[in-house]
Structure formats: C-alpha cells, structure tokens
C-alpha cells in the first residue's frame, strides 16, 4: 500500500549551488550529503515538512543523472512514494500491467530498498519510485 510521498528527486548540474539555494535562500536545513558510487550519484537531502527533497548530481559522465541532464536539463527527476511492502505493491502493479525498470529492488540512499516504475506506464510523464522504509 502506498502511504505517502516520501521524496522528490531533482536533477542538478552543480550540487554546491543547488545546496546553497535550498539552504541559504530558502532557509531549509541540510540533512546530509551522500555519495552512491554504484549509481554514479551524489545526493543532498533537505527535509521540507514530511517530504524529503533530494538534489541529485552526477559523479561522472556515465551516471544516469548525467544522461538525464544531457537530454532534459536540470529539473524534476522522480517522485517517490513510500510503500508499506515493495513485494506486495510491485506484484499488485505488475498484475495491473505496470512494468518496473528492474527485476528486483535496489538499495537507494540511506540503504532503503527502492524500485522504479516504467515511466511510460505511470501515465503522467513522471518517473515514479517506490521506497520501503
Ligand atoms: Zn528517489
């Protein structure tokens, strides 16, 4: 079951200037910065009420975020919904014809399992992630 919006991922070219905007201009407390070398990502987290904003910057040119930035420029990358059970929700979505981008969940930021839905199946042009905490 989907519980709530967990976080919004925003692709940025320059993490330092994006962090400066969220921290200094908006006055949001920086929760942390994490590198995920396996996914070629460096992520800064801001908590905005109940929702996290993740600023996603590429670690190198082969990163999925580097490819996204090249194609679409900086902007909203994905919306993550918190799932009470990835196994159940993925099975339920697959039964309704929604494809996933990977066979199995991967470990995302902070070590939580995540999986992405196929963007063509979410019918809203937004890449959707499920995360179990
Ligand atoms: Zn995410």
Description:
With 133 residues, the chain is of the alpha+beta class. It has a single domain (2-131), classed as 2,3-Dihydroxybiphenyl 1,2-Dioxygenase, domain 1 (Roll). The chain has helices at residues 15-25, 64-72, 86-95; strands at 2-11, 30-36, 41-48, 51-58, 75-83, 106-107, 113-116, 127-131. A hairpin with a 5-residue loop joins β6 and β7 (113-116). It is globular and about 45 Å long.
Topology (elements, then pairings):
Layout lengths: L1 E10 L3 H11 L4 E7 L4 E8 L2 E8 L5 H9 L2 E9 L2 H10 L10 E2 L5 E4 L10 E5 L2
Parallel strand pairs: 1-4, 5-8
Antiparallel strand pairs: 1-5, 2-3, 3-4, 6-7, 7-8
Bound molecules: zinc ion.
Zinc ion binds next to strand 1 and strand 5.
Annotation keywords:
133 residues; alpha+beta; 2,3-Dihydroxybiphenyl 1,2-Dioxygenase, domain 1; 8-stranded mixed β-sheet; 3 helices; 8 strands; 23% helix; globular; binds zinc ion
CATH topology: 2,3-Dihydroxybiphenyl 1,2-Dioxygenase, domain 1
Q: Quick one: CATH class?
A: Alpha Beta
CATH level-4 homologous superfamily: 2,3-Dihydroxybiphenyl 1,2-Dioxygenase, domain 1
The secondary-structure class comes to alpha+beta
Q: Report the count of strand segments.
A: 8
CATH-scheme architecture: Roll
Radius of gyration: 15 Å
Largest sheet: 8 strands, mixed
- Looking across the biggest beta sheet, what order are the strands in? 2-3-4-1-5-8-7-6
Percent range for helical residues?
10-25%
Order of helices and strands: EHEEEHEHEEE
- Note the overall shape: globular
| Span of the ends, CA to CA | 13 Å
Number of domains: 1
């Amino acid at each position: 079951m989907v519980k709530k919006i967990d976080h919004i991922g925003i692709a940025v070219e320059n993490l330092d200037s994006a962090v400066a905007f969220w921290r200094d201009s908006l006055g949001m407390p920086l929760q942390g910065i994490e590198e995920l070398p396996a996914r070629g990502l460096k992520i800064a987290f801001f908590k905005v009420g109940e929702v996290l904003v993740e600023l996603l910057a590429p670690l190198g040119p082969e990163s999925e975020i580097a490819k996204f930035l090249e194609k679409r420029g900086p902007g909203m990358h994905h919306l993550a919904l918190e799932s009470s059970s990835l196994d159940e929700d993925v099975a339920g979505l697959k039964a309704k014809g929604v494809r996933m981008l990977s066979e199995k969940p991967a470990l995302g930021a902070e070590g939580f399992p995540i999986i992405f839905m196929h963007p063509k199946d979410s019918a809203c042009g937004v890449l959707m992630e499920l995360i179990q905490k």
